[in-house]
Amino acid sequence: MSGSSRRPTLSTVAQRCGYSVNTVSRALRGDSRLPQSTIQKIREAANEVGYIPNRLAASLRSSESHVVAIIIEDIENPHYSHLMARIELELQARGYNVIILCNNRSLTTEKELAALAVSYSVSGVLLFPQDSVGTADGNTSAVQLLQANHIPVVIVDRAIQQQDIDCVRVDDEAGGYLAGKTLAQLGHQKYLYLAGPQNNTSQPLRQKGFLRAVDEFVSSDQKSVRIIESTVSCQALHEGRITRLLTPLSYSALVCFNDEVAYDCMQALQEEGYQIPQDLSICGFDSIGSDIRFLPRLSSIAHTKGYSIAEYAVKALMNRIEHPAAARQDIVLPVSYYDGGTCAEPVRLHRHPSAV
Question: Who's near 141: CB < 8 A, 6+ residues apart?
Fold first, then answer.
């Protein structure tokens, strides 16, 4: 082990191989004017001393880091972890590296992470915001901070209120409508809807679309819709009493704000002996089972095949990086229903496993 506590520099490599610092720098950049044998020798020397380029210093010189920061609220949700993996592949194909900054559902931390992204001189930011992007008390938001520092930013997977920010999202209202329409056409009349967080802008849109479909396809004298807010359902899930919240089954169809909640509910009900979809139809949102093969099948709503959120988000960010003055884009991707076998005609309403 070397006795020096300093990291190897270009000078360290130059001393090792006997070339000037300027020649070493050119060789490590792949300067084609140098003989290939010289480049190879210098790269071998760099590898021997453990030299790693200082990307931050290089970015300060060139004003281009080729690093994109992803600021996200929840990396535990499989939907987001899978989406980030797809985004990373899209960015790598374009020569960009990725840093992932998680805000743990804290607005204060989200702004702090935006400041951190600025300090890293990132080329751009893909932001999965916790709320609608603006702040009610007039304080500077993460987006405003990024814009003030001329960092290109694209909002991903959320509807937004601000009119000057690029946004890529699925059509949440159409998705909620499609869930309601599909279940109504199967013959369902009584529903339970587990809502998402109120500060999540996708929530009111999905709920609005779902209720609109039920109103359109189910007669008013037959329909029944019960809505449970996320604060109630999340607490029940955390305390292990979600089954008590969901039963007895006074409804035949359960619609969940996202697949993560739908899977939790399905598992809890199956552990109590309920059969899906014989006793209850369940529909989620995100269709994470389509991409994560070890998950059980689940009927769900998600972006239509061929309309990748990751691809469109990265394209929007590249466009903003290359054309800072371009018109704002609000890209809304179409949705489809994916039949995972958990939605069917209602045949055993009010049945309890003990009745078998």
Answer: 111, 133, 134, 135
